[in-house]
Amino acid sequence: MQNAHGALTPMDPNVKLDLAKDRGEIELKDIKGYQAIVGSLMYAALATRFDIPFAVAALCRYHSHPFTSHLTSGKRVLQYLKSTANFRLHFGSSSSTKRNDQLTGYTDSHWANDSAHGKSQAGHVYLLSNGDVSWQ
Q1: Interval 73-83: pLDDT, tens
Q2: Structural domain of 119
Q3: Which residues of the chain carry a pLDDT beneath 70?
């Protein structure tokens, strides 16, 4: 992955991970490499990177039966992390807010977006002084 190009987004919106088996993709024989990638990504998602939990959660659903598209998607998240390695949290004022200590929250959800299992996904982020302080 050292010589890999970066990616602008953690996931390709055109790839449907839940349809890998239906498309006739090859199931990975040695899944330990895939599981190592997903485990490392999970640590980053929980500890420092609020921008990848959606992608990591999608990849975690297939940790016991991954296909080639799952491995490719996991590598794409790594490419995204490589291209955004210098991104930092920044706490500061915004011209649109009068107070520096304003707490703002955003949430989003997608109900039953996994066509194979009908699973839903939701998330939130809270910003203090325009810096992320909590996310899920």
Answers
A1: 999 999 999 99
A2: 100-136
A3: 1-2, 89-100, 112-118
Going through the chain in order, the beta strands assigned E by DSSP cover 103-110, 121-128, 131-135
**Does 8 fall in a domain?**
yes
Q: Is residue 95 part of a domain?
A: no
CA dihedral 61, 66, 71, 76 (to 10 degrees): -20
Residue 92 lies in a domain: no
**How many C-beta atoms surround the C-beta of residue 38 within 10 A?**
23
Taken as a whole, the chain contains a residue count of 136
Number of domains in the chain: 2
Residue with tokens 């304003």: 102
CA distance 30 to 6: 26
